[in-house]
Amino acid sequence: MNKGHGFVKFTTQIQHVDSVNRNPLPATKKLFLTLALLVSGSLAAAAAPLLRWGADPSGCAPYVFSDPANPQSYTGFDHEFAEALAHEMGMSAKFVPTDWESIVASLQRKEFDVIIDGFEPTEDRGREVLFSKPYYLFRLQLTVRKGEQRIHSIEDCKKLGIPVGTLVNCASSRMLDEGGYKSVGYQDPVGAYQDLETGRIDAVVMDVAAEMYYARHNPKLKAAGEPFNTGAYVVGIRKEDAELKKSVDAAIDRLADNGTTERIFRKWELWNDEQLSLRTKEPAKYEVAKSTFNWSEGLVKLSKAALVTVLIAFGAMLIAVVLGIPLALGQSNGNKALRALCTAYIEFFRGTPVLVQLLFLYFGLPVVGITLPGWLTAVVGLGLNYAAYESQVYRTAFEAVPDRQWQVAYSLGMRPLQAFRRIIFPQAFRIALPPMTNDFVSLFKDSSTAFAIAVWELATAYRELANATQSYLGIGLVVCVYYLAMSLPLAHYAHKLEKRLQRRSSGILSSGSDT
Amino acid sequence: MISIRGLGTSVQGAKLLNAVDLELEAGRILGIIGPSGNGKTTLLLCLCGLLPFQEGSVRVGGRTLTAADSGTRSEALWEFRKKTGIVFQHLHLFPHLTVLGNIIEAPVQVCRMPIAEAVRMAMGLLAKLGIEQHRDKYPEELSGGEQQRVAILRALAMNPEVLLLDEPTSALDPIRSGDVRRLLQEFAASGHTVVIVSHSVRFLKGIADRLAFMGKSEMVEMNTTAELLDNPRDERTREFLSYSELN
Known about the structure:
The structure holds two protein chains of two kinds.
Chain A: H1 2-22, H2 27-40, E1 50-55, E2 65-67, E3 70-75, H3 77-88, E4 92-97, H4 103-108, E5 114-119, H5 123-126, E6 129-131, E7 136-145, H6 154-160, E8 164-167, H7 171-179, E9 183-186, H8 189-198, E10 203-207, H9 208-214, E11 221-238, H10 242-257, H11 260-267, H12 295-333, H13 336-351, H14 354-364, H15 374-400, H16 403-411, H17 416-446, H18 458-469, H19 472-510
Parallel strand pairs in A: 1-4, 1-5, 8-9, 8-10
Antiparallel strand pairs in A: 2-3, 5-11, 6-11, 7-10, 7-11
Chain B: E1 2-11, E2 14-24, E3 29-33, H1 40-47, E4 55-60, E5 63-66, H2 67-70, H3 75-81, E6 84-87, H4 99-109, H5 115-128, H6 144-156, E7 162-166, H7 172-176, H8 178-189, E8 193-197, H9 201-205, E9 210-215, E10 218-224, H10 225-230, H11 235-243
Parallel strand pairs in B: 3-8, 3-9, 6-7, 7-8
Antiparallel strand pairs in B: 1-2, 1-4, 4-5, 9-10
Helix pairs in contact in B: 4-5, 4-6
């Protein structure tokens, strides 16, 4: 059977070459191409017109992902399909890695010509892009932990009020939203299944393709119920490229007819008889997910997200403010070992991106048995990070308090801790307050990094809602208003407090040192 | 009373004090004179237990600080520090506390004096210097003279055996003026001791009943004020006094 397929493939390729030759390029184009070849001396492949296709390769096996055997290049069924499609169209495929959530916006910005990334037709996307004919029909699969007793179907999740993890901005997330399910959006399937494994969530719904690759062979997980809800993968094309759509559709038909599609999906163990319906002349039946955004619901969602942002910022600042003190003291007053330890901590957290630190805490700690929920990871992660910065603010502030203040306190019989608490700290605090306020405001903004660990805070809400509605401007303005409503009062009160304290602290810096 | 025996200290290899001896009975006001950089301030810091020393000992009001204890965070050191009060040249009032707060801070925090009692005590001290109306002001709202009075009261509020003043001439007027002088003399007369370091002989002449002259890192001679000024025994003292005629 394999041999037969190989033969079929071979002949189709021959035919294909023929068909290209039978449609000679216009003379001017030929001349141009010849010139280009002469000038650049580059590969012959460069001569064929490019079909730039966009997909998100991060954590999205088996669609498009870095080839584990050869990390320099990509693999996946969509990768193979895109290559075959371009080839069928007499073009040369060029892969443009992009971000899944904003993939439609990137298409419209002409970063690439088509989307081939398990892209499902949805009502809202239909307003923005053209859909090709479907090239694959998929179903959704619910996955739970091995020992799970309560959940046997997606309906159970709804009844029990259990949040279901899924990929953001896809048919299943639309389906969950519309059906009134509680959901948690993930950037990639890896994160969702990892959280399921560690118990951060109790159920994940994903396209069968992703489920097969990431969950089916995981001994800690099991499928709950049968696959449900047929959907389709299509190629996304810009509205104005109606001609391109025509040739893509024709190529999809030819790939289905000549068995290339089947060969690709068989290779990835994703072939089933349901796909045969795509080869009939009648349009295939699949469900188009609706989007249900309305402004009042959106505002409620944004408000909730803003609350999460406030919680993260305040929690993290509390940790940073408290932890910064021993760090600063250890670094300036500790013995050699303690000093080195504090300096190492500070340099580590200041020298590595906070985003990496959050990912490390979120995915790394469960390996050693510590599993924190996303919001708490964000609070702790940002808190640990900002503690490094606060320690430096404190250190500078303490150094700005003259040594003689310590000596006066000692001469009055105070013990070190007493002198610190009653004399040094209040003065240093007044010096530290303005930079601390700045840090707090930037912490509000940095809380947006929590989107990477599936925390539904304001920036995540913006991305998801804006992507779902394509209303980047409108929702963006609302989100900015939310951020300002949080940071402006903060800055205002801090400024007032500073002014009130300033009067009393200006003496510190003006008093000289004794001879 | 103060008793210093063989006091010697070095900082980073530089000998700042060398075998200093000094005996001063209670009730005296001692002025220490000498050129700048000869270790006068260093001596004061050792006297109040703020600067570790390597040789000798310092005894103040029945408590002895040995060289060994001076460099550690020992109980002996904390107790010793309560025996002395110091007023620095630049005063260093606590900028975040009011006049009243500056004075009652240590009695309340260190001696656990009830706040009401501490306030009564502080108001009594402020009234002696006629600045009780400033009780709620912050240091930077005061004139230099007023700040110096507060700094002196802050030290006196802990009721030390010995009061040390470092170069008070930068805000000289209040020391010369009757009320502060009376306060210091009253303090000395009640069985305490005052040590004032200054390069100004003229200033010390008016208040000190004993004068000591410090040469490079060492105590050269000490006598009654009149005797030291009229009849200096050491060549270095004579030379210094001849230069400082106008001070």
